[in-house]
Amino acid sequence: MIKLPGLIDAHVHMREPGGTQKEDWDTGTSAALAGGVTTVLAMPNTKPPIFDVRNLDLALASAKEKARCDYAQFLGAGPDNYSDIAGIAHRAAGLKMYLDMTFGQLRLDDMTLWQKHFQNWPRNMPIVAHSESRSMAAVILMAAIYDRPVHIAHISLKEEVLLIKAAKERGIKVTCEVCPHHLFLTRDDIPAISLGHPGRGEVRPRLASKEDVGALWANLEVIDCFATDHAPHTLAEKDGEDPPPGFPGLETLLPLLLTAVSDGRLSMDDIIQRSVINPRKIFSLPEQPETWVEVDENAKYEIHAEDMKSRCGWTPFEGWNVKGRLRKVVLRGEEIYRDGKILASPGFGRNVRS
Ligand code: DOR
Ligand code: ZN
Question: Which whole-number Å values give the CA distances from 21 to 146, 241, 306, in the listed order?
Fold first, then answer.
């Protein structure tokens, strides 16, 4: 049995308000605990999106009532909220800027709006950018111009990891995260994930080539965080017309990483750095006293969606054989998960920004 600190997932979609057929703060934080995650940072592309104090209050009220692990909620960068949200920044996980198309249609096309957000958002609060390829290069330039940190969400391409490496070498304050699905899957896996339903393979950023995935592994020292981009959609939605992009990921994060440790591709320290120490520093998160997870590093099992807490009911890793199983989660001295059972009550989780 190995003891690890409670993991931090800086990129999850809890779907509340507006998408609770996919997930809510109860099922989403239960999925977090079942993945060894004791802090989640929730994205703002809900319905309505979290663009103002009213909707921030709405999301935080649901979280307060239902969350079973600790949490914070991002505010979204909208077309006209750059001055209003500065005053409530301290209540948010950070500012999320959507600079490319994805679920929720929050893309900011106009670069003068990017500038306004960079100028108005408090310097001590994080900015996270969904920015792929060339828009990633553009937002890194903007961070350099305004001399403030920017965190790049879910990098997936060789050109991205190499550009971030070069930017870091020049002293630009850029950090980045990678998702398990971009480390363990390539576009060649799409047929096996889809099983004849092409929507199941849809995710943004898209699954990449073997060469891209190889470059992420070869440049692991450039990658600051592992984050799941847990993006639950129901199977009916994924298999329907106009399927939304996104994979659930909270419950497969730790077994996939532990399997990589067993295969000699990662060390335990690599996991702790990227799932605890770096996200805590980048997002200024408090220590969680008396908090740890216990894993049986030798337990082998098969991943099945039917064993999961997420409401979405599927996983792109269905049937995968993994080695390393979560046994126990303790948060603030309370045992809140054991062998598949969630023991924390709704509302046990705390807002780390309050
Ligand atoms: O695939 C994705 N799904 N990528 C994102 O950036 C958003 C997410 C979602 O909210 O479903
Ligand atoms: Zn996301």
Answer: 40, 17, 17
